[in-house]
Amino acid sequence: MHNDLVRRVFYGRRQGHKLHPKQARLVEDFLPEIRITDFAEEPMRAFEVKKFAPENLVMEIGFGGGEHLAVQAEAKPHIGFIGCEPFLNGVAKLLNRIQQHNLQNIRIHDEDSRELIESMPDNCLAGIYLLYPDPWPKKKHHKRRFVNSENLHHLHRLLQPDGMFYFASDIPDYVSWALIHLRDHGGFDWRAGEATDWKCPFEGWVRTRYEEKALAAGRTPTYLRFQRRENICPGFL
User: Fold this and answer.
1) Domain with 193 in it: what CATH number?
2) Would you say residue 14 lies in a domain?
3) Could you say which DSSP state residue 64 is in?
4) Hey, which residues are catalytic here?
5) Would you call 162 exposed, middle or buried from its count of C-beta atoms within 10 A (0-12, 13-18, 19+)?
6) Cα–Cα distance between 106 and 82 in angstroms, integer?
7) Is residue 147 situated within a structural domain?
């Protein structure tokens, strides 16, 4: 029990500035309609409220302000998108985009994403995005990084055969960290056909606010694509 409590410590921010009245109303009235709390039985049920039957499910972990998630959902109305983000201000921004564009295919988990991914059944996701996760730059904080052996176990378990995991970061140390951990896991093929593939944004990419700040600061984004392998071979990438 003690180890579980330590593991469950949440280190990120829950809220920044006070929400504007419209944002507060969206969180109070609209969020409950599309909030996900439990996927233990059947993931597709989360979309029944709006009578939408998605062909597949895709998850974005830590969607920030929801720029990428909203564009993806609008471009692929046949796909169900699950967004995980505990930062309330970011959730409010995505809610506004959902209403403005009448997006029926997004559901939100506004708590720690680990709670959700651990409860979801095997092979239920066609894709997972982890875009610009907090790098926790201090060495003593590296254990807080989302990419770790436990989380990769669940991401691999959740992906369908040949499902895709997309990782983006502008922090070289975290990119190296991710490659090492994915290699050690052994259940993901790095889908880089050429040496410069890491420079190419993902299909349908839209820049997030964080990426704009990174580029303005002179940092170079890295985009990594991984495909789920059925057979896990530690040390294979």
Assistant:
1) 3.40.50.150
2) no
3) T
4) 134
5) exposed
6) 6
7) yes
Q: Is residue 99 one of the residues assigned to a domain?
A: yes
Q: Cβ(180)–Cβ(167) under 8 Å?
A: no
Q: Residue 58's domain spans which residues?
A: 21-228
Question: pLDDT tens track of the chain, all 237 residues?
Answer: 334 434 456 555 555 567 888 888 998 999 999 998 766 666 777 887 667 889 999 999 999 999 999 999 999 999 999 999 998 999 999 999 999 999 999 999 999 999 899 989 999 999 999 999 999 899 999 999 999 999 999 999 999 999 999 999 999 999 999 999 999 999 999 999 887 899 999 998 988 888 998 999 999 999 999 999 988 888 777
Q: Which two tokens stand for residue 172?
A: 């070289």
Burial of 169 per CB tally in 10 Å (0-12, 13-18, 19+): buried
- CA nearest to 160, candidates 125, 199, 185, 120: 125
CA gap 92, 108 in Å, rounded: 11
User: How far apart, in whole angstroms, are the C-alpha atoms of residue 119 and residue 125?
Assistant: 13
188 within some domain: yes
3-state secondary structure 194-226: CCCHHHCCCCCCCCCHHHHHHHHCCCCCEEEEE
Number of independent structural domains in the chain: 1
